[in-house]
Each structure stands twice: as C-alpha cells, then as structure tokens.
Design a protein that fits this description.
The structure holds 2 protein chains of 2 kinds. By secondary structure, chain A is mostly beta strands. Chain A is built from no helices and 11 strands. In chain B, strands 1, 3, 4, 7, 8 and 9 form a 6-stranded mixed sheet that branches. Chain B has a 3-stranded antiparallel sheet with strand order 2-6-5, with no helix packed on it. Classes of the chains: A mainly beta, B mainly beta.
Chain lengths: 122, 110
C-alpha cells in the first residue's frame, strides 16, 4: 500500500525559505504511470496546486505560474523523497501542504499525504 | 490559471439527492475529460471520489456520480447520508502535468 508522509518545520519566518519533504513508501517515483505534486490549502480555504514532477529518468517539473519564481520541486529517488522549496515566504503562504500522486492518464490525485501545517510568522 | 468556480455551500436532507457544480472554461473543464472530485472531512486529507468526469474508484459508493456539460462539471450524491457531510473539491487538467482546483463546496446534511 502506497504511503506518503510530509515532514518539515511547522513554523517559518517571513522572507525565509519553506522546505518540506515527502517520503514515499510502497511505490516508486520512476513509474511512467504516475506523476507527483505538491498541493496546499490555506486555513479555511480551497486547494491550490503548487507544482508537479514527472520522473522518467530525469525529473521534469511544472509550476503554478503564480508561484513559479519562488518554487522548486525535486526528487531524490535513492531516499524515495519528493522535496518542496518555497522562497521569500509571507503570511499568505501559511497553509497545510500536501504531497500527492497523480495518475498520468487521468490527472487525478489517487494518493495523498496526511498534510503538514506550515505557519509563516515571526 | 484561475481556480474553478464552485458554490460555497449546498444542503439536502437524508435520502435526497444533491448536485454541486464546478465551472471552468474551454481551457480546462470544457476542453478535457480529466475532471476529478474529492471529498474532504475536517482535518483530513482529500479523498478521490470521481475521476475522468464519471468514473468511481474502487470502494466509492455508486451513490456518487459525475457528469459534465460544456464548461461545467457536476457531482451528484443520491440517497444522501449523514456521513456525506464534508467539503467537496473539483479538479481539472489544464495542460501537461498541470491541474487546477475549485474553491470547494461545503455539503450540509440537514
């Protein structure tokens, strides 16, 4: 059974960089059937796609245009980890951050991590 | 890309049917059949309920159904049950490895 587990600091200061890791167990990044994404949800609000990574020998990344200048998504296949970096954070970046696996043929998220709350505050 | 538009709330009584909408454009919902729906209970991660507009993953009750007309997708829950009370989000393909979500609809079972 596939499991995704997000981890990282729960509190980040304004203007600093948010760094999160998603550890995947029970599955492989290298399957061409799936791709991986970070998705966030500000408190009481809707879901926002942050970006995706498709690993087909090398990781191709795709980012939300509104966040593109501040986001980096990468993968360490030796550790089965997907990483998210978001620079120059503000209070507007406070959210629950999820990692997810998407079915390439359907663009649907079939597996989600449990989510991790990141608060941006001094 | 702009978020898909969903009504903030819908409600229904047990046993009734409710339908919630998800409006987009010809560049997302209207242009592709990769629309999915997710159920989210408080404090939990979303759960996939519908994919490819009409398909249900294994284990999702057949009370849940999806459809699409033009730029608007819909999720219908028939035989409403108390346990269906949750937030529901739609999602659509936009371009390669790029998706957009809706703002979510809160379903209240009266």
């Amino acid at each position: 059974q596939l499991q995704l587990q997000e981890s990282g600091p729960g509190l980040v200061k304004p203007s600093e960089t948010l760094s999160l890791t998603c550890t995947v167990s029970g599955g492989s990044f290298s399957s061409s059937t799936y791709y991986w994404a970070w998705i966030r949800q500000p408190p009481g609000k809707g879901l926002e796609w942050i970006g995706s990574l498709y690993y087909s020998g090398r990781g191709s990344t795709y980012y939300n245009a509104s966040l593109k200048s501040r986001v980096t998504i990468s993968v360490d296949t030796s550790k089965s980890q997907l990483s998210l970096g978001l620079t120059s954070v503000t209070a507007a970046d406070t959210a629950v951050y999820y990692c997810g696996r998407l079915i390439k043929a359907s663009d649907a998220v079939d597996y989600w991590g449990q989510g991790t709350l990141v608060t941006v505050s001094s | 890309q702009s978020a898909l538009t969903q009504p903030r709330s819908v409600s229904g009584s047990p046993g009734q049917s409710v339908t919630m909408s998800c409006s987009g454009t010809s560049s997302d919902v209207g242009g592709y059949n990769h629309v999915s729906w997710y159920q989210q209970n408080p404090g939990k991660a979303p759960k996939l309920m519908i994919y490819d507009v009409t398909k249900r993953p294994s284990g999702v009750p057949d009370r849940f159904s999806g459809s699409k007309s033009g730029n608007t997708a819909s999720l219908t829950i028939s035989g409403l049950q108390a346990e269906d009370e949750a937030d529901y989000f739609c999602c659509s393909y936009v371009s390669s490895f790029t998706v957009v979500f809706g703002g979510g609809t809160k379903l209240t079972v009266l």
